[in-house]
Design goal:
Number of helices: 4
Strand order of the largest sheet: 1-2-3
Distance between the termini: 38 Å
Number of strands: 3
Radius of gyration: 15 Å
Oligomer: single chain
C-alpha cells in the first residue's frame, strides 16, 4: 500500500471514530480542521494567514507547528482544569487542528531544524 492510501485510510478512520464518539466533537473537529486549513499555508513551507511561531537557537530553529500547539493546548487545559476545555466542540476543534497539521504536511515531525546559511 502506498503512503497516500495509508494517509487517506488513517484520516477516514479518525473521522469515523469521532462521529461514533460524539456529534459535537465531530462538528468541532470539522470546524477546527477547516479553520486550520484556511489560516495555514497551502503547501509545506508556505506562509499562511497567521505567522508561524518559531525561535532561533544558534544554528537551529525551533518551529511550533500548529499540531504541536494543539497538543500543548490539550495538555495545558487538562492540568489547568480550564472549564470551557471540557466541551466536546473545544476538544474536537483542537483535534481538527492537530489532524490538519499531521496529515496535510509532510514535514509535521520536523520541530527542530538546522538553519540554512
Amino acid at each position: 500500500m502506498n503512503n497516500k492510501r495509508i494517509k487517506k485510510i488513517s484520516k477516514t478512520s479518525i473521522w469515523i471514530a469521532s462521529i461514533l464518539i460524539s456529534l459535537q466533537s465531530t462538528l468541532g473537529m470539522i470546524l477546527g480542521y477547516f479553520l486550520a486549513k484556511k489560516l495555514s499555508g497551502e503547501k509545506t513551507g508556505e506562509q499562511g494567514r497567521l505567522k508561524s511561531l518559531g525561535f532561533n537557537f544558534g544554528n537551529y530553529k525551533l518551529h511550533f507547528h500548529h499540531w504541536f500547539l494543539g497538543v500543548a493546548i490539550f495538555i495545558a487545559s487538562y492540568f489547568l482544569d480550564i472549564s470551557f476545555s471540557s466541551h466536546p466542540i473545544f476538544f474536537g476543534g483542537i483535534g481538527g487542528m492537530v489532524v490538519h497539521g499531521v496529515f496535510d504536511y509532510h514535514d509535521w515531525h520536523k520541530v527542530i531544524a538546522k538553519k540554512n546559511k
